[in-house]
Design goal:
Blueprint lengths: L11 H5 L7 E5 L3 H7 L5 E4 L3 H4 L11 H14 L4 E5 L9 H15 L3 E5 L5 H9 L4 E6 L18 H17 L3 E5 L3 H10 L4 E4 L7 E4 L1 H4 L17 H17 L17
Parallel strand pairs: 1-2, 1-8, 2-3, 3-4, 4-5, 5-6, 6-7, 7-8
Length: 275
């Protein structure tokens, strides 16, 4: 018997209607446990290809596969009842042609029952976004600092520093909005450019290192709770320091095991005196 829920899942259409109104709260999740913990507090959960770095220790997102995204997205969906679930399409799964993108995106949608997919790119991806949207696949775009293009961009560097560079990113935003994208992640751009893009287009902007004036904000959950300490971008705020808490807990466990004080009688079955 399927689980009965009182929640109505948030849709991309719901979020688009909030453009310029109530800010949209977004975080990443890669597992059922994290998804379950954040579901009541966010509007959108992104199953990001950042899982390659956060969970698998890769030095970039380029090694992530469609199969990996599907496996993690299924887990995230099992832990969520309310949030809009968006799944990143990994590098190499959509760039070749609109037809290739449709094959892979439709597979992700069918196998995970997610609410939509996310693609990186602006003007060059507009045709593909239009192709997908016309065939029933909701798309969230991603412009500015695009991690899958990190080598072409010369590393994880802020974007839009010159007027020319800023104009090109605005062109990207306009192109993907016209193509039918439901929302756009705007990453790592100069703050005035984040404001400009938000005013220029009629779909929600989800900022990550962009501007507080974006229509919403998105961060990696492990970053804000201190579980991914290898690298801390400027735009991340730590709301907890879970890595330190985990380390202290493990130290305590080791000490008690070494001293034979754990397990204690209350943790054992059939211990003398146990009733």
């Amino acid at each position: 018997m399927s689980k009965v829920t009182n929640f109505k899942r948030v849709t991309l259409t719901d979020l688009k209607a909030r453009k310029g109104k109530e800010p949209i709260v977004c975080l990443t999740a890669y597992t059922t446990s994290i998804s379950r913990l954040i579901d009541d507090h966010v509007d959108l959960i992104l199953v990001g290809d950042s899982l390659g770095m956060v969970l698998y220790g890769m030095d970039s997102t380029l090694g992530v596969t469609v199969d990996m995204m599907i496996a993690h997205a299924k887990g995230v969906k099992r832990g969520s009842e309310k949030a809009c679930i968006i799944v990143d399409m990994p590098f190499g799964s959509y760039e070749e042609s609109p037809q290739m993108a449709f094959r892979n995106c439709s597979r992700v949608m069918a196998e995970t029952r997610c609410s939509g997919v996310k693609l990186e790119g602006g003007v060059e991806m507009a045709e593909t976004i239009s192709f997908l949207v016309k065939r029933g696949i909701p798309v969230v775009a991603h412009i500015g600092l695009t991690p899958q293009s990190v080598h072409a961009l010369g590393g994880f560097k802020s974007q839009g520093k010159t007027d020319e560079a800023a104009d090109l990113i605005v062109e990207d935003a306009i192109a993907i909005a016209k193509a039918g994208a439901s929302a756009v992640v705007v990453e790592g751009v100069m703050e005035p450019l984040g404001v400009r893009i938000t005013k220029e287009i009629d779909i929600p902007t989800l900022g990550i290192g962009a501007s507080p004036q974006c229509d919403g904000q998105i961060l990696v959950t492990e970053d804000i709770i201190g579980l991914f300490a290898d690298f801390k971008p400027k735009f991340v705020k730590r709301y907890a320091q879970m890595d330190e808490m985990i380390t202290e807990a493990v130290k305590g466990y080791r000490q008690e095991v070494s001293a034979r004080t754990f397990p204690a009688p209350e943790h054992c079955f059939g211990f003398k005196g146990d009733k």
